[in-house]
Specification:
The structure holds two protein chains of two kinds. Chain A is mainly alpha-helical. Chain A contains ten helices and no strands. The chains are: A mainly alpha, B mainly alpha. The interface between A and B is large, with 62 and 60 residues.
Chain lengths: ~270, ~270
């Protein structure tokens, strides 16, 4: 008497265990895809014409032209880099009080909600949209970009700083408090040493993000390398555009490796 | 016992030497900041800056009340925006998976040639924002949804690829070894040893990127790549501020909604 064992094995489903749910979800995804692709209007003729241009762009990327527009590229780069540094410094300085205010264990409830509201507003608005408004208010140029990036930095740093402060070792704060320290002394001697390494790491990370963003907000008039790039593409000067993109990629790579090295060194 | 007196009576955290270096470091930062500030504001027209509060109140008064009757007209662009984000995410994920397997140390077919190429693809895609990709693609293949979808897809490769290859590198080697011990081929090892381990991370990363892509696709229209940003650009160009308010509120609602969906899904998976 031999009982028949199955000779093949099928992998059991991992995420959605219920069969009807799984099939239902698959059908729903399929229906959505058909609908989405159905409403997609693509002008294939235009695409075919564009492919030749795409080829030229790839050629431009492979043979970048750094020299003929070097003055514009240089000015854009200087604007972007200065904007990045100043906005990160100001943004971090402003986000420290906001971050302390948004930490539950340090701030009273009204201050807490007010600071969390600032963070929510700053985080949910796109940099580009903020830039449009600030350019309308402050005029074209890197100053509007500086304000945009500072504002965006506040949301980013303050949120992470506040979360960090909420997660500190309470025993140390308790020890400092029991010596009769004032609130300022508590922040200075119990909180600051615990969050400082993280804060420096986050600031370096934000520096990197701000540079990347500074390349974007130039498209809406807020100065920087983005404006130069926009002009180069509008003039179909793909070799200059390729050069600018390569410079951006290079600086981002340097910033990324540099900041990860610095963070390791500081911690 | 008088020797105790030569200890300092005031406690300080660091030695004078490190304090001096730290002080110099901060001084250098301040100097750099001032220098950058000078360079940056060289061409700033301060009259415009001082005028800003008046401009702000002017724009504010024009923006209110929002023109809610504009809302039905926005439904089609909103659908387009969601499609850009979703189809772009799908395309990006499909392209990112092979890149991630090439970039992960334990699965790469050749560590000397393919791995650096894969890492360069990831860095290049990550350092260029979707808006810049869109700007390029609109110039190349013309304005429209397709440019937006490809822009989102290209930007997603780097993000998904980086997180996925880190997840692949963190897989448990013993499970892979167990599969290999049964005499499985390379493809079978990937399929039964590594894929099941990275599956939850994969879905989590994809949904997270989808959420970010919804955010980014709302502004792609500013450079002509379709979606709700196109309406924003049109309204800004004719200075129709009440319409701008409606669009911004709709964008905000969409972003909050997508964030909620992605948080729910990620919570369910992980």
């Amino acid at each position: 008497m031999s009982t028949s064992y199955p000779t093949t094995w099928r992998r059991p489903p991992q995420i959605i265990k219920d069969r009807t749910w799984r099939i239902g979800l698959q059908i729903a995804i399929l229906v959505y895809l058909v609908l989405a692709v159905g409403t997609l209007e693509v002008n294939w003729q235009r695409v075919a014409v564009g492919l030749e241009r795409g080829q030229r762009f790839i050629m431009g990327f492979l043979q970048p032209d750094f020299t003929s527009r070097w003055n514009d590229i240089y000015r854009g780069l200087i604007e972007s880099l200065t904007m990045t540094l100043t906005s990160t410094v100001i943004g971090v300085i402003l986000s420290i009080p906001v971050g302390i205010g948004a930490a539950r264990n340090l701030a009273p409830a009204p201050v807490y909600y007010f600071c969390r509201a600032i963070i929510a507003v700053s985080r949910s608005l796109q940099e580009v949209i903020i830039a449009i408004f600030l350019v309308a208010m402050f005029g074209f140029g890197p100053f509007a970009g500086f304000l945009t990036l500072s504002f965006a930095t506040i949301g980013f740093i303050a949120k992470l700083l506040a979360d960090d402060i909420e997660e500190i070792d309470e025993a140390q704060a308790e020890a400092v408090r029991s010596t009769g320290a004032s609130w300022l002394q508590l922040v200075n001697y119990a909180i600051q040493p615990q969050v400082m390494p993280r804060l420096i790491g986050l600031s370096l990370y934000r520096l990197d993000i701000n540079f990347r963003e500074s390349a974007v907000i130039g498209i809406v008039g807020a100065g920087g390398i983005g404006a130069t790039l926009n002009t180069a593409i509008d003039r179909y000067e793909y070799d200059s555009a390729g050069a600018i993109l390569l410079i951006i990629i290079g600086i981002v790579m340097i910033a990324e490796y540099g900041s990860s090295y610095l963070r390791k060194f500081l911690q | 016992m008088s020797e105790i007196t030569h200890y300092k009576e005031v406690w300080s955290h660091r030695t004078p030497r490190t304090r001096l270096f730290m002080w110099l470091g901060w001084l250098a930062l301040v100097a750099l900041f001032v220098w950058c500030w000078q360079l940056m504001t060289e061409n700033t027209i301060w009259a415009f800056v001082w005028d800003a509060p008046r401009q702000a109140s002017d724009i504010g008064s024009r923006m209110w009340p929002p023109r809610l009757s504009y809302l039905p007209e926005l439904m089609q662009p909103l659908w387009d925006t969601i499609n850009i984000a979703t189809l772009g995410t799908i395309g990006g994920v499909i392209m990112a998976v092979p890149v991630a397997f090439m970039a992960a140390r334990n699965t790469t077919p050749s560590a000397t040639i393919l791995r650096p190429i894969a890492l360069f693809i990831i860095v290049a895609s990550r350092s260029i924002n979707a808006l810049i990709w869109a700007l390029l693609l609109v110039a190349i293949i013309g304005p429209g949804l397709l440019a937006g979808i490809i822009a989102i897809a290209l930007r997603s490769i780097g993000f998904v690829g980086k997180l996925l290859y880190e997840a692949i590198e963190e897989t448990d080697a013993r499970q892979v070894e167990a599969i290999a011990a049964t005499g499985a081929s390379e493809a079978q090892i990937l399929n039964y040893g590594i894929v099941p381990q990275v599956m939850p991370a994969f879905w989590g990363i994809s949904v997270f990127r989808w959420d970010i892509n919804i955010r980014e696709s709302t502004i792609l229209g500013l450079v002509g790549a379709g979606g709700i940003g196109l309406k924003l650009q049109a309204s800004l160009n004719v200075l129709a501020w009440p319409q701008v308010t409606v669009i911004l509120l709709l964008i905000l609602a969409t972003v909050v909604f997508s964030e909620w969906v992605s948080a729910k899904v990620r919570h369910a998976i992980i």
